[in-house]
Design brief:
With 139 residues, the chain is of the alpha+beta class. It has one domain: 2-Layer Sandwich (Alpha-D-Glucose-1,6-Bisphosphate, Chain A, domain 4). Helix 2 crosses helix 3. It is globular, with a radius of gyration of 14 Å. 24% of the residues lie in helices and 47% in strands. The longest helix is centred in the last third of the chain and has 19 residues. A 7-stranded antiparallel sheet has the order 1-7-6-5-4-3-2.
Length: 139
């Protein structure tokens, strides 16, 4: 059995700006840092079929996540696979839906197919930390 989480967050930017932030490797290194992560390296090929690699480092370890962009529909939808060294390299799927919310953008992040032995709250907290940092980055 696999699990799915969904997180909604209104961000202080246009949907175009939020969409572009997810395709800016240099910028992502500043906000793709959940929990104890102290540094991050990001490499992206922002096209359908393009690869992504995110290396997150803590004082004790490094975790590598890779994937492939499946959908890039600026400024409304991004979808990519997410394969993490923390999850025995099982392929999961992340979908970002972006909707105008006044002058801001509502981001709906859905992460599905992650292993059932992971705590749902841990994955949800990780993405929650990332979205808080993205919020600060966009201001």
């Amino acid at each position: 059995m696999s699990h799915t989480i969904t997180i909604r967050k209104v961000l202080p930017a246009s949907c175009e700006e939020v969409f572009d932030a997810w395709l800016d490797a240099e910028g992502m290194q500043e906000w793709m840092q959940p929990g104890p992560v102290t540094h991050c390296k990001v490499a992206l090929e922002p096209r359908v079929g393009g690869q992504l690699q995110i290396v997150m480092g803590t004082p004790d370890a490094e975790y590598v996540s890779t994937g492939e962009f499946r959908v890039l529909e600026r400024p409304t939808k991004l979808m990519f696979t997410w394969i993490s060294s923390r999850w025995d390299m099982q392929e999961t799927l992340v979908t970002l839906e972006l909707k105008p919310h006044g002058n801001d953008c509502e981001l709906i992040l859905t992460h599905e197919r992650f292993p059932s032995d992971l705590l749902v709250s841990g994955v949800q907290n990780g993405w929650g930390h990332i979205l808080e940092k993205l919020d600060t980055y966009l201001v």
